[in-house]
Amino acid sequence: MEKITLGTRNVSIEFPGVKALTDVNFEVSTGVIHALMGANGAGKSTLMKVLAGSNPGYTGEVLYNGQKVELRHPMDAKKLGIQIVYQEVDMALVPNLTVAENVMFNDTVMNMKGKLFMNYAKLRKSAREVLKQLNVNIDVRQICGKLSLAQKQMVLIARAIQNECNFLILDEPTAPLSDTETEELFRVVNHLRETKNMAIIFITHRIHEVIRICDSYTVMRNGMIVDTTPITASTTSKEIVDKMLGRSIEENFPKEICEIGEKAFEVIDLTEKEGKVKNINMHVRKGEIVGLAGLVGGGKTELCKTLFGAFRKSSGRIIMNGKELKIKNPSDAVKNRMALVPEERRKEGVLVAETVTFNMAAASLDKYCHLTFVNGVLTAKNAKKYVDELQIKTPSIRQKVAFLSGGNQQKVAVGKWLAADSDIYIFDEPTKGVDVGAKQEIFRLINQIAKEGNCVIYATCENSELLSITDRMYVMFDGRITAELVTKDTNETEIMRYSTGEVQAAFQ
Amino acid sequence: MDSTKKISAGKFIVNWAAVAVLILSIIFFAVMKGAAFFSWTNAINILRSMSTVTIFALAATVSMAPDGFDMAAGTLGTFCAYVFASFFLWFAMPLWLCIVLTVVFAMVMYLITMFLILVCKVPDMLATCALQFVHQGLGLAYTGGSAISAGMTPASWAVGLNGGVTSPARSGWIYENGSGGTVDARDIGKSPWIIIIMIICVVICYLLLERTKYGRYLYAMGGNKTAAKLSGINVKKMRFMAGMFAALFIAVGGIVVCSRNSAAQINGSDSYLMSSLAAVFIGRSIGGREKYNAIGTTIGALLITVLENGMTMCGVVYYILPAVKGAVLCLALVAAYATSKED
Question: What is the distance between the alpha carbons of residues B154 and B146, in angstroms, rounded to a whole number?
């Protein structure tokens, strides 16, 4: 069969303030399963979006079979047979339509000019044929919203190959899948390569999967390509991890030594109701900063939310100062003096439509009330205090939070909990999307919190941050804790090895 | 900074459009009709006729502040009127007891609404749509299929309860209290009482939403439920509390409508639902609040009533008035949404 190649030459992309891709030269050809790897923020998704036509602002050239092509719109890519399945399957599916309608969605939208009535029999027949090509068994009459995640993914893959498809890009397809579902996906992918001579580009974090099913891999780091090599019998996961990390860029944040007291917070055998986190055993001492390491999808956020009662637990105990806590919802958690600074700041952390004053008082209103009546003077005083203390840049405490910068919004989210005077602070990716200066201030703040004898849990996928700020850390993979590491005795390579599931330490 | 100033100038007009329309229409009607419109008597008239709409609109305001909704407020108000009238006329209870029991009744009925929304997780709009029919049906079952007014025979179950006496326990809306004076239940629907009741309701709603911590919680929920929940707010409890306040206002609304009409009429309060929603939406963006709030709602109700009153005076036939109300609501909604950024 003839081979088609797709590649980039010196492709760069700049977002305001960040260089997302720098002179990337990348190539795949049909008939190959190719893995694209790299730590978070390495530029994998950005590069794939260029190939899919949804990053029109690139400079450099995209080459299709050696010929220069312009991919400035998703339609351009689709015309060339480049199809992408994004990680968030629910964004692309229409949940209240049937499987058949979803599979044939593009067809319905694009090829219905001049036609008025749907031919459902034909639609279902075509959809069935496409699914047959994938060799999967899904009833085409079923409503998409009722499918499992893995099945939804299959529907999207079916939609992709229903059109002309030479290059199929799968953005982290296996992250949310169980082992059997992953196997099924691999079978489908292999089947596609063999029967249709497609190129499949996999973005993934899971190294052992790559070695098992891929023919070659590319590693990216900081928006650049580190290496592209075929996978042979001698390829080891260690060499891939090393390439992903390169030399570590030091954050250079001086860790302040806090006095670590007795064990104050303990979690015993905690399992979330839907199995998002399983068999968690951990503890935090007073004045200790404990990290949660792991890649995106490893279960850090889920663990934070389960501890805080935002997700239901099915079993396990949470003990604070020797007393077992009954936490059924976040309201209970706050009553027990817990605080969560969530990952999605704008969606979950602050109320963007409200003022700084309002936000600062949101978690501790009782303190500023006389007989349930809010005392405006006290809330303003509180807001002023923390605006000064955290050096939040805002024209006034009456400013709506929506108008503050990301770093300052984050500080408001933290300040809210400082005002609530909690004992346990859980930070979930607190430095996401904030600049270096604000990052340092947030670190200083977290250190300060620990110094006052509070417990801190710090979840992030930035391993360098964990190395610079924590005392100890738990590494998570697939919703479980795979390792407990003491920060001063570990390094990025070791963390990465546990968080990619390469090493499954017998940890209990 | 220049550009933000320009935006605020444009915003300013939008924010105060409803108030501007209100003032302009008052000036317009004053010029057209002179003292007939612009007089103390007519002001009282307007306040009296806006009262019922305002009270129902306050119920909608507290429901909507935490991003809830109640389509069944009108029908529950009607049901409350039946209950109030029956307690008063059929069982001759003292007025205060009738009022208290009606409020309790509304809250008990509202438990069904809250059960559907909070326990069964039915979306507010759908749950209350369904409950409209339940209220209507049960209400008429309660009255025996007819309105309740003075001198009419009670429903058969009430006759049975009264030991087979077919005449109502009280023949009219007036009774003598123990100390020689008389109590007239119809006074509730006349000025000054109706206006005082409205003002008390507005003040209660204002204090709840603007001054107490619960108001903060409710607005936080309306702004972003997830963030509110993760701040430790017990969102279900707060929604329940908002529902109970809505029930209180609905009960008061039902009673006021009943005494204004001197009877608990079939579907008596149903029509207030849409007017009240119009008032709430008009009030939402007044002053750039972008929140459902008590004062805005009151101004919204005032605007609708002034237009109705003035136009009726100018000889506009009554059956066109809803179209005017609708047009004002459209304008308010356009002001609120057409300027919002698309994302």
Answer: 10
B229–A335: do the CB atoms touch at under 8 Å?
A: no
Q: Which two tokens stand for residue A153?
A: 């993914």
Residue A51 near residue A169, CB atoms below 8 Å: yes
B228 reaches A (C-beta below 8 A): yes
Partners of B220 on chain A (C-beta within 8 Å) are: 351, 354, 358, 362
Residue A469 belongs to what domain range?
251-337+422-508
How crowded is residue B115: how many other Cβ atoms within 10 Å of its Cβ? 12
Q: Is B77 helix (H, G, I), strand (E, B) or coil?
A: helix
| Cα gap B337→B343, rounded to integer Å | 13
The answer to whether residue A407 sits within a structural domain is yes
- β-strand pairing of A18-29 with A373-374: unpaired
Contacts of A278 (CB under 8 A, 6+ apart): A271, A272, A479, A480
Which residue, of A380, A401, A421, is where some domain finishes? Answer: A421
DSSP annotation string for A321-374: TTEE---SSHHHHHHTTEEEE-S-IIIII--TTSBHHHHHHTT-GGGGEETTEE
Sheet (strand A289-293) strand order: A338-341, A424-428, A455-459, A289-293, A472-477, A480-486
Question: CB-based contacts of A116: which residues, under 8 Å, 6+ apart?
Answer: none
Task: Quote the pTM value.
Answer: 0.77
**Do residues A281 and A481 lie in contact, with contact meaning Cβ atoms separated by under 8 Å?**
yes
**ipTM of the complex, rounded to two decimals:** 0.73
If asked whether residues A181 and A64 sit together in one domain, one would say yes
Distance from CA of A364 to the nearest CA of B (A): 9
Is residue A342, in this structure, part of any structural domain at all? Answer: no
CB neighbourhood size of A366 (10 A): 10
Q: Which chain A residues touch B237 with a CB distance below 8 Å?
A: 331
Asked if the C-beta of B171 comes within 8 angstroms of chain A's C-beta atoms, the answer is: no
- φ/ψ of residue A59, rounded to 5: -115, 160
Cβ contact B216–A365 (<8 Å): yes
Which tokens hold the place of A484?
A: 């407990």
Domains within chain B, CATH numbers bracketed: 15-147+191-337 (1.10.3470.10)
A-B Cβ pairs (cutoff 8 Å, strict)? 75
DSSP B195-233: HHHHHHHHHHHHIIIIIBHHHHHHHHHHH-HHHHHHTT-
Contact B87, B97 (CB under 8 A): yes
Pair A428, A389 in one domain: no
**SS3 of residue A28 by DSSP:** strand
CA-only gyration radius of chain B, Å: 21
- Interchain contact A416–B (C-beta under 8 A): yes
Residue carrying structure tokens 């036509």: A53
The sign of the torsion formed by the CA atoms of A329, A331, A334, A339 equals positive
What is the Cα–Cα distance from A331 to B285, expressed in whole angstroms?
31
Cβ contacts of residue A147 below 8 Å, gap of 6+? A99, A138, A155
Output the tens digit of pLDDT for each of chain A's 508 residues.
678 899 999 999 887 666 788 899 999 999 999 999 887 667 888 899 899 888 888 999 999 988 999 988 888 888 888 999 887 777 788 888 889 988 988 887 777 777 777 788 888 999 999 998 888 888 999 888 888 888 888 898 898 888 888 999 998 887 777 777 888 888 888 888 888 889 999 888 777 778 888 999 999 888 888 888 898 888 887 788 778 776 544 445 666 677 788 889 999 999 998 888 999 999 999 999 999 998 877 889 999 999 999 999 899 999 998 899 999 999 999 999 999 998 887 788 888 888 999 999 988 888 888 888 888 889 999 999 999 888 888 888 988 888 887 778 888 998 899 888 889 999 998 887 666 667 778 888 888 889 888 999 999 888 888 888 899 999 998 889 989 999 888 888 888 888 887 766 544 3
